[in-house]
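Thread amino acids onto this structure.
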């Protein structure tokens, strides 16, 4: 299974971005899926997850600002990010939960102050 993240970029603080994660086969529809990020010099951390039934859970650091959704037909997982802050600067990844061993390349998000 291949995971391909996209949608990152440079945005000013307070702005928004929507990230996408395309996975082969029925990965997105058949698994709980999660979003993660790795900031400069930091370890990769969990941001949130969506269950197969659509139930979502978020880390406190992004709750109320980020929203996870999926489109099973398009085989795509989304992360809508609003009210971005400079501390959201990181490389963002998606993965199944439990995680597959191989991660995608991630997508860089840079938030300027």
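Threaded sequence (113 positions):
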């Amino acid at each position: 299974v291949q995971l391909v993240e996209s949608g990152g970029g440079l945005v000013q603080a307070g702005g928004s971005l929507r990230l996408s994660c395309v996975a082969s086969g029925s990965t997105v529809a058949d698994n709980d899926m999660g979003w993660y990020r790795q900031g400069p010099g930091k370890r990769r951390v969990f941001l949130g997850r969506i269950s197969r039934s659509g139930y979502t859970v978020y880390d406190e650091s992004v709750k109320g600002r980020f929203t996870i959704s999926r489109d099973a037909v398009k085989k795509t997982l989304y992360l809508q990010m609003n009210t971005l802050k400079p501390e959201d600067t990181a490389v963002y990844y998606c993965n199944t939960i439990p995680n597959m061993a191989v991660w995608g390349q991630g997508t860089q998000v840079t938030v300027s102050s």
